[in-house]
Amino acid sequence: MKGAVKNRFQLKKLIQDALKQRDLDRVAEYALESPRTVGILFNLSYDKDSIITWRAVEAMGEVARVLTYRSKEEGRELMKRLLWSITEESGGLGWSSIEMMAEVVVRSPEVFSDIPLLLPEYYDEPVFRDSVLYALWRIGSTHPELLSPKDVKEVVLQALRSESPYQRALALMIIEATRETIDYKDIEIDREVFNDDTPVRIYIDGQFVTRPLKELAGALELPVRKQ
After folding, report:
1. What is the C-alpha separation between 4 and 131, in angstroms, rounded?
2. What one-character DSSP code corresponds to residue 71?
3. Residue 48 has what pLDDT?
4. Mean pLDDT, the chain, integer
5. 3-class DSSP state for residue 56?
6. pTM of the predicted model as reported, rounded to 2 decimal places
7. Where do the domains of the chain lie?
């Protein structure tokens, strides 16, 4: 590590500075030198309204990639920690762990190809629904072949009926990302969505992007449900 880092406080400050610049490689370098890095990324990932949280999510994916390259066992241990963090025993540690798991898969699909098949199960838990949808979109955007078409389609159908604009938006984005591998021809979208100006803010490519629901729906060629 460049420069001696004497304590956790110093390391956290360095990681925050790197995340502000979206320098994920630098965060990964810190992780190779200090196991404290993973815990700090967890601690920085609680506020979903903060761009630092989402960059910490991305950084965990890059950290897992370099740790896995050094040792597959080390990478697997990190994934086990992410999975444990969303259990009741963890005491609610993993507010962003499902999103982090998706980033790990995106960057190391050959090692963690089993993880995408587990994620739809967590949609049954209301507290994880936003996270599962985001994770399915991220994986579907890069490695849709790793997803179970049947399970993803079931989640998308439920999300399209959600009262949450964020969940409906992500459902539409999942359809767009996976339409080459999943058949959505029998899915009908409510006509009102095509006129819905509700803005939805989503983290995409390093920044928050705000899109109205009607824009996301308009990009799809799916049947409109008759009122």
Report:
1. 36
2. -
3. 95
4. 92
5. helix
6. 0.93
7. 1-112, 115-227
Sequence-separated contacts (24+) of 159-168 with Cβ below 8 Å: 159/129, 159/133, 160/187, 160/189, 160/190, 162/129, 164/129, 164/130, 165/196, 165/198, 165/200, 165/213, 166/130, 166/200, 166/202, 167/129, 167/130, 167/133, 168/193, 168/213
pLDDT digits (tens, 9 = 90+) for 139-186: 999 999 999 999 999 999 999 999 999 999 999 999 999 999 999 988
Query: Residue 221: pLDDT above 80?
Result: no
Residue 142: both structure tokens together: 């890069």
* Beta strands in 91-137, from DSSP E residues, in sequence order: none
E strand or H helix that includes residue 156: helix 149-160
Angle at 18 between CA 14 and CA 22, to 5 degrees: 165
Residue 51 to residues 28, 36, 119: CA-CA distances in angstroms?
18, 21, 24
Specify the pLDDT at position 26.
97
- What is d(CA 43, CA 48) in angstroms, rounded to the nearest whole number? 12
Q: How many CB atoms lie within 10 A of CB 46?
A: 14
At 207 the three-state DSSP class reads strand
Find, among 141, 147, 144, 171, the residue nearest to 158 by Cα. 171
Is a pLDDT exceeding 80 seen at residue 74? yes
The set of residues, in sequence order, having a beta carbon less than 8 Å from that of 76 and lying 6+ positions away, is 68, 111
Other C-beta atoms lying within 10 Å of the C-beta of residue 180: 8
Average pLDDT rounded to a whole number, residues 98-104: 98
